[in-house]
Amino acid sequence: MSAKDWNDEFEFEDRQSDNKELMRFVGQVLSNWYWFFLCGILGILLAFFYLRYTVPVYTVEAKLLVSDDKKGGSSLEGSLMGDLSGLMGGKSSVDNEVEVLLTHDLMREMVYADSSYISYFAEGTFKARSVYSAPFEVSILSDPDSIREIISLGIAQDEGGQLVLTNPDTTFQVAIGKPFAIDEVGLLQINNVGQILKEQPYGFTIRPVGKVVAGLMQALSVSVTNKNVSTIDLVLKSSLPKRGEEQLQMLIQKYVQRNLDDKNVIADSTLSFINARLTAITQELAGVEDRISGYKQRTQLADMTEQSRILLENSASYTKSLAEIDVQLSSLDAMSNYLRDVSNPRVVPASVVLHDAAFNALINRYNELVLQRERLLLANTEDNPLVKNITVQIAGVREDMISSLASTKRNLELSRSKQAQMSNQLTSQIQRVPTIERGYIDLARLQQIKQAQYIFLQEKWEETAISRTANVSNSKVIDAPRSSQEPISPKKKIIYVLGFFVGLLLPLGILYIKGLLNVRVMSMDDIERGNKLPILGTVSHSDEQGQVVITKTSRSPIAEQFRAIRTNLEFALQSKKTILFTSSMSGEGKSYVALNLAVSLALLGKKVLIMELDLRKPSITTKLNLSAGKGFSHYVVRPEMRLEDVLTPSGVHEHVDLIQAGAIPPNPAELLVSARAEQLMQTVKEHYDYVLMDAPPVGMVTDAQLLNRYADVCLYLVRHGHTFKEQLRIPNDLVSKERISPIQLIVNDVKATGSYYSNYGYGYGYGYGEYGQEDKSKKCWQQLFKRK
């Protein structure tokens, strides 16, 4: 055979083996189809009840558009207020706003505003059902943070109009609209009680704020699904869709309000700074004007000469420049002192002092870091690494701003020095003007300086006030909270399918476990697996009380099986006549099969002898209801006895005789191999066509192996549901070690259950045991675990 042909044959055998396993599995399922049907229906029923009493969960979705300079830009971009919005110095990032929406403090504000710590339910037949609203309203009059425990109370109205609150632990009455206290909860009040309360029992549950916040935080998810746009998706899971929409809407409102508050902090700080400066400049300007008025009264000054007018015009030009420089220097000093206060980082007024774009960028960066630090401190301490990191960044930006102010101040002082030099030259010319006029010019120049400062600050105040009024949130709702039409859990179709398949898996699991726990021969596959010995035939289970089930006129299936065994036996014997019956242990039907096979052979007109050679525990005599007489043991120990002295008619057929075991000897093994025993075997072979030897089990005694010397074939009994799988190794070992040969198997007591089993064996070692000594306790346990 070529290598290719060999591989093809090998693969064919594998396919046959796989197909056989598949057919065994299909047969196992088909033979128990009713269990699969019932369990499948049971699984669907369980799925129905699960869906009936499981609270469905819906999703509430919303979408926000955030102004992000890196992505979508500001909503004010390109508008008339776009320039003024820079005064606030506010920039947003989508990722930062996601973190803000996920803070516990924001969720806590929503819980307080929406009273989410109070929920209502309607009493049902088996369990309570959460409802969106109830025919009454519960309010907490005390601080909601005083709630320490979860409490659920059913509410009903008695005939007197009082409300009866009950739970498994307590029952008490309260009046409508009257406050009442509950330990670990606080002061409560029930209002707006409707008539429907008398028809349908309702109740309410109060939970600690912290637990409600934690639960909502787990139910809320905030994500940026598309990195190319500045939109944020919010999803809230809720068992009450309408309630979930309200909670998500309130969360968005609190977020928008907090965002506006952050922007207004910068504007309010700027306005406060400008107001303080305006107050000081107003007082100084009023003092200068009073000095001018007093000077004119003292000197009776009325008009200026033309020369004085020209000098004043020129002087005014320098005076204005010096005034602007002084204003800037004064603002620089105030801003520098403001920044040097490091005790508590505060937002810095923007665009008040300089028109330098680089310095304004530092202010914006500084304000962003201060606001971010304040947000982090809402849920963290100052020792948190993130807070420390931002504090270090704030300090670095502050130093950069102080350095920039110092550099700008040096430039302004240099410019002022040059302007002062030019002004001094003009002053020297003015000195030629009369003293009175020169004094007036000095006062007028001081007035211009103060007036310029006042006008500048007033303009900045108006710009900041307008900007604050035009403040809008950096985000807006582009998709309002909307609940899903179908619940996300449980999924009805999936639950029904899972219930059906789980129901089908139940009988499969039982069959598998049953197969694992079964250690006895339950099918032909159990015998064929690992067995190399031929099977001569099978004998079905019989419910008949008698030991002999075959007669001349018998046409039963079991009678036909014995006839088939008889036919196969003729081919196995090949004109020989001695047959040895043995098995692995007691109770496998050796005597039963030997008697019926003997009758079957006698029906052919053959003379058959049954030898009861189980000298330890003989059973054929008892099964045939014969009286005990002289037998094999008598013949062997008494040389004077002849064959006729131990022969006994069997009573089952005229051609079937019996040699009883005789008295139970102390040394049965020695008797079986004695010279008298060999002589007896030679004699019976001459007088009978067939000699059937009923030997003891071969498990733990050697009698059957000793009798094999007289046998032409050994029939090894395997009983369905009785023989252990591991005991099938015994006949195979006997043949491989040439202790008994040849051996052919007979499968006895086969029950037509239609079941299939494919489990593996028990430990080797189950044998004959203490043969001949009946163990009542063991018998009792066998009856207890006997398969019905």
Number of helices: 23
List the domain count as a whole number: 4
The biggest sheet amounts to: 8 strands, mixed
Main sheet: strand order: 14-21-20-15-19-16-18-17
Percent of residues in helical segments? 40-55%
Named CATH topology of the largest domain: Rossmann fold
CATH architecture of the largest domain: 3-Layer(aba) Sandwich
Q: Structural class of the helices, strands and pairings?
A: alpha/beta
The shape, in one word, is elongated
Measured between the Cα atoms of the first and last residue, the distance is 52 Å
Q: Supply the CATH superfamily name of the largest domain.
A: P-loop containing nucleotide triphosphate hydrolases
Instruction: Give the class-level CATH name of the largest domain.
Output: Alpha Beta
Query: In angstroms, what is the radius of gyration?
Result: 55 Å
The proportion of strand residues reads: 5-15%
Which stretches are poorly predicted, pLDDT < 50 over at least 5 residues? 1-16, 72-91, 755-788
Secondary structure: number of strands? 21
Summed over residues and divided by their number, the pLDDT gives a mean of: 80
List the main descriptive attributes of the protein structure presented here.
788 residues, alpha/beta, 8-stranded mixed beta sheet, 6-stranded antiparallel beta sheet, 23 helices, 50% helix, elongated, disordered N terminus, transferase, non-specific protein-tyrosine kinase
